[in-house]
Automatic annotation (TrEMBL):
InterPro entries: Crypto/Photolyase_FAD-like_sf, Crypto/Photolyase_N_sf, Cryptochr/Photolyase_FAD-bd, Cryptochrome/DNA_photolyase_1, DNA_photolyase_1_CS_C, DNA_photolyase_N, Rossmann-like_a/b/a_fold. It comes from Streptomyces diacarni. FAD binds at Y218, T230, S231, R232, L233, S234, F262, D363, G364, D365. Its cofactor is FAD. This is Deoxyribodipyrimidine photo-lyase. Belongs to the DNA photolyase family. Residues 175-202 are annotated as: Disordered. GO terms for molecular function: deoxyribodipyrimidine photo-lyase activity; DNA binding; FAD binding. Transmembrane segments: none annotated. Keywords: Chromophore, FAD, Flavoprotein, Lyase.
Length: 456
């Protein structure tokens, strides 16, 4: 009897899961393993919103495995040590795992390979699991990644994609490997009230609903803040309860401009992943530095805190920041606006904002978060790095009725449409009666400071 370990990381699904399929195919019996890596807690990345969603994912995965004759083995500790221990207990010849892109994942892979090989076992790493197209698959000659999205996307579209795999029908489990209790959401403290349900079953339901009644309108409505007309699949993509390759294939099959626009966003996801894979230090360091001397000191700290709390005095910025706290999620247009406001208007280091996002986002993801923050701060791959978004004009454009602002900023619930993005124009007395904060900064002053800092 041969045995293999299928190590789940950011691929918490049974369908279209190449490491699981390969483990089940090459060995007589399988240990489906998830390690609660204490290194992630120690690095401060175990945000409660993601831990709650993760608990749902593991519970659902365990159910699915039990239906197929196995169950999820959960262990807590240092990941390499735990995997080696389980491989030894199961006498597994191979460990199958998905390739991933961060520096953390690269180091994990290297250490795991060395430790397994020294015990006479083999690590098998599978591409195109976390992304639809693997990092490094599309590279101009002599380069290790592509730095501009449009040409990347053209090549991405031409890249042959594999057909999505079904879930294994039966999985024969290795006998006698013990598991900790699968974590439960109810035991997670400090979770935002609006965090959605995690797990492959919930993800598939959401995706089916999206194909039926969301995707066709996506191209026209994705920027409408109040309409909430995006897929909200990002947490499922982050934890891999849905496969990006399958999403691309099924959206393409459905066809139409909405589906094409949606697929383009999935390509953005792959794009950022390939940048991080080639430049892992850009999770902290500027991708293209402007030698910014970001504001620090007491006033900048106070302003960053007002931004975190959704009390900047700019309604659409505050609405988005409050949505983040309540739901652990924020609309993409909101993310762009609050990112520009922090990094450019307030001229506070993008890392301060990225950290706050990672503390709250259910989809908080090193590749997507850090690369998008850098894009917005103009230190990343944006070809117009000094663009500054004006929250008032953007608010009027993407929330013309003020419905998004009223939903998240109760102080402005009864303000007429004319003033909802500029409540300070109501007049002193009426404005004071709202109990809504004064503007932190004049937009013109913020713009001048930023341009001066960037030498523009
Ligand atoms: C400052 C900032 C920080 C961000 N942080 C994250 C993050 O931590 N995790 C994350 O998944 N996304 C992040 N994004 C990208 C984007 O805002 C979210 O992916 C999107 O809002 C998720 O909502 P949705 O699933 O409804 O997206 P949809 O519009 O339905 O798009 C479908 C999918 O495409 C991908 N996608 C969409 N836009 C982008 C993008 N700009 N970059 C990369 N992938 C994209 C996502 O996986 C998304 O689920 C960030 C954007 C900005 C500007």
């Amino acid at each position: 009897m041969t045995a293999a370990v299928a190590l789940f990381t950011r691929d918490l699904r049974l369908r279209d899961n190449p490491p699981l399929r390969a483990a089940a195919k090459t060995a007589d019996s399988v240990v489906p393993l998830f390690v609660r890596d204490t290194g992630i807690d120690a690095a401060g990345y175990a945000a409660p919103n993601r831990m709650a969603f993760l608990a749902d994912c593991l519970t659902d995965l365990d159910h699915g495995l039990r239906e197929r004759g196995a169950r999820l083995i959960v262990r807590t500790g240092e990941v390499v040590e735990q995997v080696c221990r389980v491989a030894h207990e199961a006498d597994a010849a191979e460990v199958h795992v998905a390739a991933d892109v961060s520096g953390f994942a690269a180091r994990r892979e290297e250490r795991l390979r060395a430790a397994l090989e020294s015990a006479g076992r083999r690590l098998c790493v599978h591409d195109r699991v976390v992304t639809a197209v693997a990092p490094g698959e599309i590279t101009p000659s002599g380069k290790d990644h592509m730095a501009v999205f449009t040409p990347y996307f053209r090549r991405w579209e031409d890249t042959h994609r594999r057909d999505p795999l079904g879930a294994p029908r039966r999985i024969r489990a290795v006998e006698g490997v013990t598991s900790e209790k699968v974590p439960s959401r109810t035991r997670t403290k400090g979770v935002s009230p609006g965090v959605p349900e995690g797990g492959e079953s919930a993800g598939r339901k959401r995706f089916a609903h999206w194909l039926r009644s969301g995707i066709d309108a996506y191209e026209d409505r994705h920027d409408d803040l109040a309409a909430d007309a995006t897929s909200r699949l990002s947490p499922h993509l982050h934890f891999g309860t849905l496969s990006p390759a399958e999403l691309v294939a099924r959206a393409r099959r459905q066809g139409g401009p909405g589906a094409e626009a949606f697929v383009r966003q999935l390509a953005w996801r792959d794009f950022h992943h390939q940048v991080l894979a080639a430049r892992p230090r850009t999770s902290r360091d500027d991708y293209r530095t402007h030698h910014d001397r970001w504001r620090t000191g007491e006033q900048a700290r106070r302003e960053a805190e007002a931004w975190r709390r959704g009390r900047t005095g700019y309604p659409v910025v505050d609405a988005a920041m409050r949505q983040l706290r309540h739901e652990g999620w924020m609309h993409n247009r909101g993310r762009l606006l609050v990112g520009s406001f922090l990094a450019k208007t307030l001229y506070v280091d993008w890392r301060v904002g990225a950290r706050h996002f990672l503390d709250h986002l259910v989809d908080g993801d090193i590749a997507n978060n850090q690369m998008n923050w850098q894009w917005m701060a103009g230190t990343g791959t944006d070809t117009r790095p000094n663009r500054v978004l004006n929250p008032t004009t953007q608010g009027k454009k993407y929330d013309p009725e003020g419905r998004y602002v009223r939903r998240w900023v109760p102080e402005l619930a009864d303000v007429p449409k004319r003033y909802v993005h500029e409540p300070w124009k109501l007049g002193e007395e009426q404005f004071a009666a709202l109990g809504y904060p004064e503007r932190l900064v004049d937009l013109g002053d913020g713009l001048d400071r930023f341009r001066h800092a960037r030498g523009k």
